């Protein structure tokens, strides 16, 4: 064999390789590191096909060697795999392995050789138990994480649903009330038309229903009542028997509360924020001065 | 000099052997020249795979690559791990001597350069060919994402993608890989069951390696339940790596180059290129500035007729 390649030792080869690369330096592509290769094949690359085949014949095992010695299986890939698509690539490898194993197992089965490890066969494994424990721990942790996330999601969903249901219910209730009022009105009209005598009691009753608003709690705030006042402004009106206590006391009681929890007493509302009476205007000027 | 002479000796030896073996190739065994008489009387029944792989690495190897090497050691029961070899001074001859000393027939040599590039040599020892790969995309078996596990020393099933048959160099690599990675049958440290599979696949002119555990739902020792093979699943054990072939040499760790990857760029080159690009940034800026200035000088702005319109 007379290969075009030079006689090169281990070290020489590298030097050679380096300056061969040097000449090619401009044509390098700038992909990410692991996929970089020359755009076009370099011309002076050696390819000694005869030498390769000769070498191959030199080292191959005799052809009649049984398959069990070799245990190798060729699998045809149906289509080209895109290297940069990790998922597709791994899937291709997986299917190759799976297909190969299937074929191999069929062969082994037809030869009558045992190939599956019996469940009571214990032997040293490639990965230690300690390591497998770690792997298991990681898997469990991952699972837990997922479950927790799932739970949180579910809770959120439930909350949303409950809100919706509550709104629905309120609507329903309002509707019902309206209907009832309507019914009563109708009934009253009918009664009037029928000419029933109106007793005093009845008129009183009717008055209560007059415009149907008796059932609704008025949303309007009573004017003088501060938002946190638990007495609903009644403390301000004052009981007649407490004549001794002055107006001041009553006012303070209504404003600051008298007994009871603090609850919502200290919250701002639109009214309180717009109320600037409590501020001393002079002090604002002072602030300005201080700023300067 | 002495080393060199030794080297050339092995060179001379190789073709002679080839001449002997070429005409009656089917009768050859792996160690044909050693026990020729035995082989001649027996056919495939007498075939005995006596493969021994020496695994070693260069000094100053990265921990990651060292772990990869150790993984390979645990995957191949028919290997002998040797001490680290000095990378600079290691030339073919010393390594060959070492392999011979350990009475191995092939070698996996992990060579780490600059603490970051890993080269893998696969060599058949006495008359070999040897293949040099650049290794990238390394994932070791220690990674927790790879959840499989299998018996230590069970023989792997080797699967190759069909494109290994495409060209002579791929064929040669396939043969070398089968001989190195296949555990010899009835090897004393091997276990009699098959529970993992190696994948060698050529994608994008790189050889990708994967190792999967085979799990089959079965009840008895080797009776697979009906359709059990269909329910077979694989779990990845690792390690993973991707081999980029660089060169194939005729001898072991040297000799005439039989193949050269025409697309290969060394990682040094890539890094240099990156650096140059980065370095070019400032120079480019300066250049752009001067160019702008030149441009402005060469075509001055026309005097604006409305310039003093509001200056009354």
State the main characteristics.
heterodimer, A: 292 residues, mainly alpha, 1% strand, elongated, disordered N terminus, B: 312 residues, alpha+beta, Rossmann fold, 11-stranded mixed beta sheet, 6 helices, 11 strands, 26% strand, rRNA binding (chain B), ribosome biogenesis (chain B)
Could you provide a short overview of the structure?
The complex is a heterodimer of chains A (292) and B (312). Chain A contains 10 helices and 1 strand.
Can you tell me about this structure?
The complex is a heterodimer of chains A (292) and B (312). With 292 residues, chain A is an all-alpha fold. Among the domains of chain A are: 12-111, no CATH class; 131-209. In chain A, 55% of the residues lie in helices and 1% in strands. Residues 1-34, 200-204 and 238-242 of chain A have low confidence and may be disordered. With 312 residues, chain B is of the alpha+beta class. Chain B has a single domain, classed as Brix domain (Rossmann fold, 3-Layer(aba) Sandwich). Chain B has 6 helices and 11 strands. In chain B, strands 1, 2, 3, 4, 5, 6, 7, 8, 9, 10 and 11 form an 11-stranded mixed sheet that branches. In chain B, helix 5 (168-181) links the parallel strand 6 (157-161) and strand 7. At the A-B interface, helix 1, helix 2, helix 3, strand 1 and helix 4 of A face helix 1, strand 6, helix 5, strand 7 and strand 8 of B.
Could you tell me the CATH topology label of chain B.
Rossmann fold
Name the CATH superfamily classification of chain B: Brix domain
Percent of residues in β-strands of chain A = under 5%
Percent helix among the residues of chain A?
Answer: 55-70%
Question: What is the β-strand count of chain B?
Answer: 11
Q: Helix amount of chain B, in percent?
A: 25-40%
Mean of pLDDT of chain B: 82
Chain pair with largest interface = A-B, 93 and 117 residues
| Record field, number of beta strands of chain A | 1
Broad shape of chain A: elongated
Pfam family, one (chain A): Ebp2
Keywords (chain A): Coiled coil, Nucleus, Ribosome biogenesis
Organism (chain A): Rubroshorea leprosula
Family (chain A): Belongs to the EBP2 family.
